[in-house]
Amino acid sequence: MTTSTERPTTAAPTPRPGWRLALTHTKFQILETVRIPIALVGNLVFPALALLFFVVPQREVADNPVFATAAVAQLGMFSVMSVAMFTHGVGVAEDRALPFDTFVRALPAGAMPRLMGRILTGLCLTALALVPLVLVGWLLTSATLPLGRLAASVGVVLLVAIPFTLLGLSIGYWLSSKAAIAIVQVVLFPLAFAGGLFMPPEVFPPWMNSISLALPSRAGRDLLVWVTSGQQLPASTIPVFLGWTLVFAVMAVLAYRGDEGRRYR
């Protein structure tokens, strides 16, 4: 007489959808960032302080609704650039130095959920960075944003973050963490000054204004100022914005593939 020795079968675990994995990565990347609050101070405080010290005392600018709104939009563009380049440039470079990043990239889910999580983290930090700037502009200047322009402004903020997210990713996948910090700073501040984010481009001499109009920071600034204050959009803005977005997209893809070829060959 024989007895059956069949082993009980267990159902294979159902894989999580990619969007849930992306939200999980977003949650833990935000928690990892806020565990060191000082890391947020620069992005949260600097644009608001610049508005407080350089725009609010100039009452001819602060009391003019169009000029004040344009000033807030310019510094808002700096917040977008700063968060995108530090979060994706320095953050990706630091992650690549960790053994855990190698393990995560080798998982069957692939790199996309982690990449989407990082992009969502950058968007959340961008929204957080705009809060003190908007509060200072609302309380201490005549800056206004009608409800009819609010939704469009949110959309343009997301739009102008795209090229600088791609630039940050290309820096993060190309360079080591120490080099990425230096390069981000070297790239960020000249682009901000020349793009008219710290002073209105109307005060630029003609030769400097011509250079400024060809920069991605100026294109992003002009789009934000246009949607928030209604000022005229230069004819070169859209082609320049699309051209730089394409260039940064190619750089990001090449940097990612190059990193994958070096580390996972």
Automatic annotation (TrEMBL):
Recorded GO cellular component terms are:
ATP-binding cassette (ABC) transporter complex
Would you kindly state one Gene Ontology biological process term found in this protein's UniProt entry? response to antibiotic
How does it sit in the bilayer?
Answer: Multi-pass membrane protein
Query: Where is the major localization of this protein?
Result: membrane
Q: Which residues cross the membrane?
A: 36-55, 67-86, 119-141, 147-167, 179-199, 233-256
**Molecular functions (GO terms):** ABC-type transporter activity
Q: Which UniProt keywords apply?
A: Antibiotic resistance, Membrane, Transmembrane, Transmembrane helix
Pfam families per record: ABC2_membrane
Determine if Membrane is one of this entry's keywords.
Answer: yes
Cell location: Membrane
Q: Residue limits of the ABC-2 type transporter transmembrane domain?
A: 25-225
The entry's protein name is: ABC-2 type transport system permease protein
**Source organism of this protein record:** Salana multivorans
